[in-house]
Amino acid sequence: MRLPFAPRPYAGEALSSWVARLAAHNFVDAETFWAWLGEGPVDDLNPSTEVVHRLSEVSGVSHTDIKTLARPLHRMRRDHILNALPNTGLRGAACAACLVENEDAEEDHWLTGFAASIWTVTCPRHARHLLDLRGFDWQFDGAKLRLGQGQRLGGGGRLRATTPPSKLLTICGAAFRRVAIGRSPGSAWRIGNAADFLKCIDALAAPVCWRSGTGFASFARHFDEAGSRGCESFYISEPFSEGVLAALAGEHVRTRASVMAAIGHLLLKPDALTALAREQPLPFDLRANAFSNLVEFLNPAQRARLTQGSSGLPDCVREPLRAAIGEAHPIEFESQLFRAHERTISPQNLAERRNSDGVSSISLQ
Questions:
Q1: Structure confidence at residue 67 (pLDDT)
Q2: At 117, phi and psi to the nearest 5?
């Protein structure tokens, strides 16, 4: 049975996005559509042969084209893929500029497959931060499908443009996208292959989110490009660290961006980080060993845990990391932490990171 109207998928579109459009143009929601097909909720991560066959049968789209929609997700690790939002099937984040272009071309709103990665936080085409999709849902006006928040945002009003990301975040985004599908991150990084890069992400994702205790910010918190309104709510208490990527899969896009930038700051080669610092302010003054900045945010137990967790990392990361831990001054931790803030946060960045109350982001949360 062929559907009365079956829009073709766009190049690079996510399977869940296309299914939402198929459903909307036949005046049902995605959940009802999948029930009609005899399937449960859309499996956009790894659709079965039966699902692909049924979708091809009702849409007229070839099996090959349907499988292509899920191809980016096939090549990503499951813990690098975002959770779908409840009751909507939405997964990922959206570029406001892309959605406005859809409207100008009189197209449906649609989402790319790569938007489902926890490390997709900027639009590579428009060089803009992405919109977090919590609070949004699919809304059909009888002609076009739109992402709406309370009321339809297309047609009667424009989506508000987001700001450009820092160059650090742009560089990180490109590298993290490449390694997610098995490609080399590029020549600017300490690690040259995807497998070792992913190991380093696994090892550092929790430590950059650790807080040494109540009232202290995490290392990643200082990479929040939204200032004091960003990711302060996400942190990991020692000794918990396993499952940090799964936890990030349900977090705001701004939080994920901060964690990614913090990891990227550590994994960039020193000369690449120096060149970057000439183009944009960084949260910390440059040091010969960038890992020293991270270590000063960790208490002795956390440093010991990080030392233990670094055993399987490549030498180009393990050696500077352990050197930074070994060189850390063994004085009372909380006093050291505040002196570290004073030493590593530049006056320019400190001024930029004051919130509306005049309280610096290094103060108590």
A1: 84
A2: -75, 140
